[in-house]
Amino acid sequence: MARTEAQARAMYNTWLARHGGQHSRGSNHHHEDDGRFRAFWDHLRFIDAHNSRAGAHGFRLGLNRFADLTNAEFRAAYLGTRPRNNGVFTGRCGTSLDHGVVAVGYGTDEDGKDYWLVRNSWGPDWGEAGYIRMARNVTSRAGKCGIAMEVSYPVKTGPNPTPPEPEEDATCDRYSSCPAGSSCCCNYRVRNFCLVWGCCPAEGATCCKDHATCCPKDHPVCNVSSRTCAKARNSPDTVDAMTRFPAKRQWPPSLAEQIVSSVFFQ
């Protein structure tokens, strides 16, 4: 059953609330021009007629932000003024190209129809969240709606860039190391021998005497009592001290080392 003018105007007002103000023409805004409504109603009648037999077509049409334009105002090479909604597009269209899109993939739907997945530039309200599935493997060499006529794609002509060399760990001793970009700090020392190493999460850091914190190289002066780091001695420019974390070991630690580590890192 065809919609009455009152029903069409109600839909037009709802459409305006969502899309209004996007197609200003001359001195009169389009919602003041009855011609905009007439164009909208023409498209609505076409959409209703198509969707009444959507099962036979295999896809449905819907309203988008261009639904108040006449064919003369907006002649799209792919879909004309028919706003796409869902399904694989197999309908009629021309090959007079005046709009660029991006083919981002391909596939086959549940009915066995091959398609190109195409991204348009009209926003997420158009088509299937901004995309359309165009029929693929058609008989025309130009492709559906001329999709294969003026194809461009990037071509790689140079060698691949050289990958950066992996950064080496900071070596604390023959058995301990810290990740690249960090500094080794001794957490427990007997005479001149460090039993337990820790890591400061900064390169070139100062290891504080509390054996638990450290300072970055731009604030190298430790204040153990306040757990801060100063830019210089007695400088008011301070930052919070950083907490060390355990260094990596290449062999299992001894029982004594486990006890010491539990004291300093728990």
UniProtKB/TrEMBL annotation:
A Pfam family: Peptidase_C1
Domain of life of the native organism: Eukaryota
Ranges of residues in domain Cathepsin propeptide inhibitor: 12-74
InterPro entries tied to this protein: Granulin, Granulin_sf, Papain-like_cys_pep_sf, Pept_asp_AS, Pept_his_AS, Peptidase_C1A, Peptidase_C1A_C, Prot_inhib_I29
GO MF, one example: cysteine-type peptidase activity
Keywords from the named record: Disulfide bond, Glycoprotein, Hydrolase, Protease, Thiol protease
Protein name listed in UniProt: Uncharacterized protein
Organism this protein belongs to: Eleusine coracana subsp. coracana
Gene from which the chain derives: ga18638
